[in-house]
Amino acid sequence: MGQELQEEKKFQDPPPQMEPLLGVLALVTLLSPGLACPSPCSCSTKKNGRLLAECAYRELRDVPRGLSPNVPELQSLWLGYNHISAVEPGTFAALPHLKNLDLSHNRLAEFPWQDLRNLSALQILKLSNNRLAALPGGALPALAQLQLFHNPFNCSCKLFWLKEWADSTSVVISRAGSTLCAAPARLRGRAVTDMPGSLCVAPSAQLTYQIGRARAPLGLCIPKSQNPPEPAAPGI
After folding, report:
1. Quick one: residue 189, left, alpha or beta (phi over 0 = left, psi -120 to 50 = alpha)?
2. Per-residue b/e over 90-129, b at no fewer than 16 CB within 10 Å?
3. What are the domain boundaries of the chain?
């Protein structure tokens, strides 16, 4: 009876020298294409322990499906140098540990900015070399590094917040001098961070009314013309 218990325990508790091998096998299982990585991507663990999904240079037109539920511990996601033109809302919602998101060199004209609120661990966001023309106020989370250069930004009053944010933030904005305005024409080629402060100041104007030949500022009342006095009666 005692011998049987010893043999059963032998199978339950692997020897210490087997533990590293079991850890490697578990990692291989996690990173196997069928369980973790979408087929166009390759996943690996870096020396610092970060899990990376590399999907760059794959001629992708969409973000690979199934990425979030399959790799919840993902920390770096590289999707650069593809043909992605849109990102569906909620695509990155299940990636709470994501620290590095690279979507540079794509065809993005819009982006689900609201999704960034759920990425509390995000530190690096790369959206350079896309087709972004607008950026809603308050869209950017607390980052360490941001890339927005080579996008055709419309430097209207709606984008002026970005200039003010760039002036006050501690975020490193890579190549800020290359983050240029494409419109309006008078600001084309000018850095977004150099947008003039007078851009969104309402012009002052003085309205006047013109009555006959007389001109008076708005609010000044001009009495109506009265009938001329009747001529005095001839003397007696």
Report:
1. left
2. ebbeebebbbbbbbbbbebeebebebbeebeebbbbbbbb
3. 33-216
Kindly report, residue by residue over 27-59, the tens digit of the pLDDT: 333 344 334 588 899 999 887 778 999 999 999
Residues 6+ apart with CB under 8 A from 123: 99, 100, 143, 144, 145
User: Quick one: pLDDT at residue 211?
Assistant: 60
Superfamily of domain 33-216: Ribonuclease Inhibitor (3.80.10.10)
Q: Per the structure block, which two tokens stand in for 205?
A: 């104007």
pTM as predicted: 0.71
Q: Write out the two tokens for 11.
A: 């199978």
Question: Strands 172-174 and 145-147, how do they pair?
Answer: parallel
Cis peptide before 184 (omega within 30 of 0): yes
Instruction: Give the integer Cα–Cα distance in Å for 70 and 46.
Output: 18
* pLDDT for 39: 84
